[in-house]
Design goal:
Blueprint lengths: L1 E2 L3 E6 L3 H14 L3 E7 H9 L6 E7 L1 H10 L9 E8 L2 E7 L1 H5 L8 H19 L1
Antiparallel strand pairs: 1-2, 2-6, 3-4, 4-5, 5-6
Helix pairs in contact: 1-5, 3-5
């Protein structure tokens, strides 16, 4: 598992098409549902007539954590849901999840820190489970 300043990622031994349901299932096991799916490849072709590699953005939400965050900070909805991306790069399938602690640190509300920490721990488990 590699970690960047704003994301947690791994490379899978699975095709892009196989990875998406695996990611969705791993998220579900940690209490996340996928609220949105943005197929970037299709969108770029449709809107700009540009070719783009296989790339999807999954808008993942854990309702309990979202409720805690929203009741602590009304404007936090601007930073929700937690995005998880699946894409192909150099013949490999990559999965990367937003680091909620990094994303939510800009809020400056101490009540958000425990929610961000728990969301990060859950997403780290998702990524670790996919890497196994």
């Amino acid at each position: 598992m590699n970690r960047h300043d704003y994301g947690i990622r791994t490379t899978l031994n699975a095709s892009y098409e196989e990875a998406i349901p695996k990611v969705t299932d791993a998220l579900k096991k940690e209490g996340f549902g996928v609220l949105t799916e943005i197929n970037v490849k299709e969108t770029m072709k449709k809107k700009l007539d540009k070719e783009f590699p296989k790339y999807i953005i999954l808008g993942a939400c854990n309702p309990q954590l979202a409720y805690q965050a929203l009741t602590s900070e009304t404007e936090i909805g601007l930073l929700l849901p937690c995005n998880v991306i699946v894409y192909e790069k150099e013949g490999k399938t990559v999965v990367s999840a937003q680091d909620p602690e990094a994303a939510l640190s800009i809020v400056g509300n101490d009540n958000i820190a425990p929610v961000a920490k728990e969301a990060k721990e859950r997403l780290e488990r998702v990524i670790r489970s996919l890497a196994a």
